[in-house]
Design brief:
- This protein is mainly beta.
- The protein has six domains: 2-156, Jelly Rolls (Sandwich); 167-275, Immunoglobulin-like (Sandwich); 283-374, OB fold (Dihydrolipoamide Acetyltransferase, E2P) (Beta Barrel), CATH 2.40.50; 384-466, OB fold (Dihydrolipoamide Acetyltransferase, E2P); 492-749, Endonuclease/exonuclease/phosphatase (Deoxyribonuclease I, Chain A); 763-846, Macroglobulin (MG2) domain (Immunoglobulin-like, Sandwich).
- 9% of the residues lie in helices and 42% in strands.
- The chain is built from nine helices and 54 strands.
- A hairpin with a 4-residue loop joins strand 32 (418-423) and strand 33.
Amino acid sequence: MLLNLMLPLQQVQAQFLEDFEEGSKGSYAEGTVVLQSGEWLLSDALLGNQDGDRKNGGQSLRLRDGFAEMLFDFNEGVNEIQFYASNAGFSGDTGGIIRIYYSQNEGENWQQIGDDLELTDEFRLYSIPLSLTGNVRFRVEKVEGGRVSFDDFRIEPFEELSQDPKIEVRIEGVEKENGSEVVFPAINTGKEQSLSVRFTNMGEPDLSIDAIESLDSNLFYVDPEPASAIQGGESFEAEIVFSPENPGIVESIITIRSNDPESPEFNLNLRGEAIDENELISVNEARQVEFGTRVTVAGRVTVSDEFDGPVFFQDETGGLAVFDPGLIEMASRGDSIRVTGPVTEYNPVNGTAGTFLTQIAPVDGDDNIIYEIIETERSVPEPQTITIQQMNNGAFEGQLVRLEDVSIQDSGLFTGDRNYSISDESDMGVLRIDGKVNDLVDAFIPTEPVEIVGVVDRFDGTYQIKPRDGEDLAAEPFVPDGEDIDKDLTLDVVTWNVEWFGAENNGPTDNDLQMNNVIRVIEEIDADIYAFQEISNQVAFFSLADSLDQFRGFTSTFGQAQKTAFLFKTAVVDSLDSGLLFEGQDSFDWAGRLPLYFEVNATVDGITRRILLYNVHAKAFGDQPSYNRRLNAASSLKDYLDQNKSNDRVIFLGDFNDQLTSSTYDGAEQSPYSMYLEDDAYNATTEILEEKGFASYLAGDFRSMIDHIIINENLFEYHIEGAQRVENPVYIENFVNTTSDHAPVWTRFQFTGEPVELPTEIVVEPNYPNPFNPTTVIPFSLPEPTPVTVEVFDVLGRKVATLVDQQIFPAGENEIEFFARDLSSGIYLYRISFEDGAVVTGKMMLVK
């Protein structure tokens, strides 16, 4: 079988390598990026470092519907190119097809190499033999299917063919010298293991392989053997098969006899190991076997059910994990266990094979896990003290270890199911806080160097230490103030950017799961008013409201795909008015998302207070033009509130897309919202959260506090200071990927005064202030919910305004605001009509 095609292989060494580890490009927009090898052009492509990016190392090239090409030449010619490629590991990424091109005139013309390459979900190395001299550059293009991953692009320089036949032998892509050793992974007896082998003729005359001889053909053999000569520069591919029948380590030799005058007998020294699945072996030996091989191991349990995952155990040689629900339920720390089952890895995100935690767990075709808890005295292994550098080297995967004098590169509270950067004198590393570790979730991140005990996990190529409880990592718990106050006695208000809620092609991919998770969060918080941002599907939003008892909601009407919205409890909140705030606002500064106001009567513990809420979704991005737009928007809203709503109770909340004490724009000396912090008439309730290092934006490495709640002085006495918090949605699995990249932010209010008895009759108080300019308030009390009409007339009896018309107000204290900015100075009369026929009139004076 003569080949001059793409062949699936594994890693090889070459003089040119682009591993895509250097450089940064996080968007699909066409642009250049400087990598280790030189400058590349990426179009509809980026450098991906997410779980779904299959990669060797920290990142790889992700192609959506575009290409990546070298903007420089490799000047040593090309014998062969090699690269890893596969479908990406995100949802829906299948059927990827790529083409490889080369150019020898600086990219003016491109020529395709071979046929289109159909990728699979297996991230593997492909090889294309070439014979090009001089300058050359390459381009990879995705032509069909979903997103694809591409990594470790290698070029082997051109090599002149010799004047005699010359054999080159590669095993799994690695060139072997005559007499080299080839080691097979351990497998079970009765199974087979194959390694790819490629014979290439590096000479001009034909290479004749006369015989391939094995000392023990029942154990090792080559299949198929070449049936004809191999022409100059061409290759023949086959497999070396290891097929043991008995347990133990075996060695043999395969000899390739050819007409190569320098190596007429090319020898490969073969070594393999066969395992009887019922024979007890060490943990270290078990870690070396081929995935799918059944082993029997034993050790002491270091983690039982502390995590949402497997049991960890170890012996004197190493650590391992085992996933079996029965064992997880029964085992305790210190138990001595014996386990039989197949070795595999924990890969929940369809990421790069071989880069996740090694464990014993069910595999396709084999779900038989046998375990035994041996009745002996429990004894938890002592953690081994190591450095972060040693952890990163991988030798301690699965083991219980101790890191000393560790600094955590973050502040605020620990969030469950999240990674944190750590460092010691040796290296940087990763700390993983599991969502089930209640001692650490919602605890303050230590600011001084600490000792951390935990097991070493591995996820998508990254080693991480996972503490099991508060004894493994000492941290002070965070308890918001007011937790002893019943929620029936408070008004609880939330702002939450629910990432692309209900969108088909943006945000979380499973809309049903996102809906269910949002409902779960709402039920957990149990607040009275929710201000949402990024509502991208109004039908889904109203379906959300309908699915919640005693809730109603509405969305904004601006043209943006991402709308703001309010959701509220009808038993607590009576809607008086709502709409977009146009007065004094520039839609451009608000990125087309004008503030959505909501005027309500909120009744808590028998006390009713009228409140105005302004829900915003400010301009995003950390550049100066975006900063300027946020600054203008914040200023215009404050001017409006100062001039028109200083007598009202105001809550300004939402996704500010910036911080309060500093800015996401590095060039700014202060936050675009600093004017609220400097004015004693306002209280930025969430400023203290930012100061303590809390984060409401959770995606990637850019964790920041950009969702806020500000109140004016008329609400100061009602706010429960210290009740503000960032919700920690640890009860939602994989929250950032399934629900939102923002966490809810909320706080609580308790209306002052003792509960009072409802009036026995309608009472209307004089308006205040009086005289007024331009706003006055008419207060009244009702013995029961009643439709009310309020009209305003001038002294000639002409009606100038209808403030409400048959609007139902709740029992208790109520207020109606009259805004007379467009009227002339003078005396006006108001008339309040009630359902029972009662009419009350009053006189008020407007002075401008």
